[in-house]
From TrEMBL:
InterPro entries: AN32, Leu-rich_rpt, LRR_dom_sf, U2A'_phosphoprotein32A_C. The keyword Repeat applies. Residues 113-131 form the U2A'/phosphoprotein 32 family A C-terminal domain. The keyword Repeat applies. This is U2A'/phosphoprotein 32 family A C-terminal domain-containing protein. Belongs to the ANP32 family. GO terms for molecular function: histone binding. GO terms for cellular component: nucleus. Keywords: Leucine-rich repeat, Repeat. SUPFAM superfamilies: L domain-like. It comes from Magallana gigas (Pacific oyster).
């Protein structure tokens, strides 16, 4: 039995892992992936998941490396709340995600910057919701 085939949703919340391990391109059908509170410090080696739309990475220790998500061009929802993101520049790779509509950075240091919301919406013009609130 080839397990990953046809799995559309995967929840690995609280499975402890500092890096992406055991998650591969075999999960190519995935549309939703949740990795809340797994202790991730890096997204290095994140697999290409072309159908992935919803990625939940809350409460990890990610500081940077969002370019590692480029194999997931159809992301519409990305939650990075409770991570170690401090700079708007860190979000730069997200410009390549034309489908991204919902971004959550709640409880990240970056949210304390002056004009944080304006800067993020400027950087990501396709974004509709930031931290649960729309542009207006």
């Amino acid at each position: 039995i080839h397990l990953p085939l046809g799995i559309l949703e995967l929840n690995l919340d609280s499975c402890r892992a500092p890096s992406i391990d055991g998650l591969s391109e075999e999960f190519s059908e995935l549309e939703s992936l949740s990795l809340i509170n797994v202790g991730l410090t890096s997204l290095k080696g994140f697999p290409s998941l072309p159908k992935l739309q919803k990625l939940e990475l809350s409460d990890n220790r990610i500081q940077s490396g969002l370019q590692n998500l480029q194999g997931c061009p159809n992301l519409t929802h990305l939650s990075l709340s409770g991570n170690k993101i401090k700079e708007i520049d860190t979000l730069e790779p997200l410009k390549n995600f034309s489908e991204l509509k919902h971004l959550d950075l709640f409880n990240c240091e970056v949210t304390q910057l002056d004009d944080y919301r304006e800067q993020v919406f400027e950087l990501l013009p396709n974004l509709k919701y930031l931290d649960g609130f729309d542009k207006n």
